[in-house]
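Quick sanity check, Acyl-CoA dehydrogenase family protein:
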Amino acid sequence: MGAIQTSESDTADRQFAADVREWLEDSLSGEFSALRGLGGPGREHEAFDERLAWDRHLAAAGWTCLGWPKQYGGREATVRQQVIFHEEYAKANAPARVSHVGEELLGPTVLAFGTQAQKDRFLPGIRSVGELWCQGYSEPGAGSDLAAITTSAHLDDEGWSINGQKIWTSLAHVADWCFVVARTERGSQRHKGLSYLLVPMKQPGIEVRPIVQLTGTSEFNEVFFDNARTDADLVIGEPGAGWRIAMGTLTFERGISTLGQQIRFARELGDIEAMAQRTGAADDPLIADRIDHAWVGLRVLRAHAIRTMQDTGSGTDEGGQASVAKLLWANWHRGLGELAMAIRGPAGLVAGTDDDLDEWQRMYLFTRADTIYGGSNEVQRNIISERVLGLPREARP
C-alpha cells in the first residue's frame, strides 16, 4: 500500500509541476514577457507597477498562498508541491514578487496566531495582493538585537497610539500596512512587554523617508511614528506576547521559498562561471577551485533546507534551524559576490557611464549586507550557542 501511495503522490506531483510550467510559460510569453528576471533584493525599483500587476495576475489564477487552507483561498498544497512551485517559478526566471512580505511572513503568522476576525479581515487582501505589507522590526538602536527596541505603544479609549522609529523597512514607501513590534508595557525590558501590532501606513502619524544604498537604489526606509493609530483589536496574540509572535514570523521567513531563492543563486553562479570561461579567468586554478567550492556550498544549502523544512510550518524553531539556514545562505551569497568581483578583475572597480553599476557590481555591493540584515552573523551564532547548545550567555551591558 505504501508503494502505491508513493507512486500516486509522485504522479500527482509531476502533473502539478507540469501545470505550473505550462502556466508560467504561457503567462510570461505575453504582456508580462519583459518582466523576466526583474526585481529582487537591491533591484526592487525595477518595473514595480508592472510586477505588482503580475502578482495580481498570479492571484487571479490561484497561484498565491498555495499552502493556505482552502477556506482562505489557498490550495492546501503539500510541502512538496509548494517546493515544486517555487523551484519552477525560479527556473522560469519569473519576476521577483512584490507581495512576499504579506504572503510569506504576515499571512502565515495570522494563520498560526491570529483571531478569526483577523484572519477574515487580512487574509483575503494578502491572497489577492490587494494590500501590501512591510515589516516594522529593526530600529536605529535595535537592529540585530531586536529585544532592545524602544518604539512604544499604549492603549487608550480609541485604540493603540504608537511612537518611535523603525529603520531598514523594506518597501515601506509602497506598503498599505506594517506589522510593528512595539513595547506596550512601560518599564519592561528585553523580550518582555512587547506586542505585535498591525498598523495602517496611510495616516498622518506616519512618515516614511527612503534610505539611499550603496547601489544607488532605495528600497529600504526609515519610518517615524508620531502618535500613529491602530485599532485595539489589531494585536496578534496577547499584548505582551510580541516576542514569541515575532520569532514565529522569522521562522516562516526562512521556509519553503528559500528553495526558489537557491534556484536564483544557481543561475547567478552559472552566469559567473560562464563569465570566467569567457574571460579566461577559469584557467586560474584558484578561481576554478572557488567556483567548485561555490557549487558544493549551494548543494549544502539545498540539503539543509529540505531536511529542516517540516519545522517551519508551526512558527516554532526549537533546533535553531532558521539561524543555521541564515548563516549558510548569507555567507555563501556574500562569497559569491566576492567571486564575481575576483573574476571581473580591475574592470569591476570602474562604474559605467553616468556612474551606472553593472549587475555584478550591484550584486557585490548588496551582498555585503546579506550577513547583516535579517539578523547578523553574530546574533545567529549567539542564538545557536545559547538557545540550542545551552552555552553561557554572552555578556551584555
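Posting the structure with no commentary besides this: Residues 1-5 have pLDDT under 50 and may be disordered.
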